[in-house]
């Protein structure tokens, strides 16, 4: 439909879509990236919208799905380890106070952990990644993946148990 002006759509819905993206990521920069990506998708397909009254819902759906895609695919370098003694240097380290040898040790440990994560089943990887890398709560993970909260807790428990066995 050629009667839709993309600039008007952007100015009208950008803030709303940002809040949707932020509700998934809890990170302002990621939310901004997701909104930009969603609007790129919209720009490519804006001519396909048949009912202008459904534009708001269409934009919201695209943004929510883009946010979920980002959460599933984005790779961050920080991983939480199984052992709290090993966890603290990785999660809370300050590179300006560490020497090169310590940083290299942490990097090698992160690589070992990444390889161990690959041995887990897809279901375990998914919940553990959302919990550890993105800091989501069990109920948020359950809502995001369409699972029961108890299922998420069970998968997290089993995934951690398998990682402990891999590092033992």
Report Rg.
Answer: 20 Å
Number of helices: 8
Overall geometry comes to elongated
Q: How is the biggest beta sheet arranged?
A: none
Number of strands: 0
Would you identify the CATH H-level superfamily of the largest domain? Winged helix-like DNA-binding domain superfamily/Winged helix DNA-binding domain
**Secondary-structure element order, N to C:** HHHHHHHH
Strand content: under 5%
> Which percent range fits the helix content?
over 70%
Could you list the spans in which at least 5 consecutive residues all have pLDDT below 50? 75-94
| Helix-strand makeup class | mainly alpha
Oligomer: single chain
How would you describe this structure in keywords?
single chain, 168 residues, mainly alpha, Rna Polymerase Sigma Factor, Chain: A, Arc Repressor Mutant, subunit A, 2 domains, elongated, RNA polymerase sigma factor, sigma factor, sigma factor activity
Question: What would you say this structure looks like, in words?
Answer:
With 168 residues, the protein is an all-alpha fold. It has 2 domains: 6-73, Rna Polymerase Sigma Factor, Chain: A (Orthogonal Bundle), CATH 1.10.1740; 84-167, Orthogonal Bundle (Arc Repressor Mutant, subunit A), CATH 1.10.10.10. It has helices at 6-25, 28-45, 55-73, 84-92, 100-118, 122-132, 138-145, 149-167.
Reconstruct the topology from this structure.
Elements: H1 6-25, H2 28-45, H3 55-73, H4 84-92, H5 100-118, H6 122-132, H7 138-145, H8 149-167
Question: Can I get a quick summary?
Answer:
This is RNA polymerase sigma factor. This protein is mainly alpha-helical.
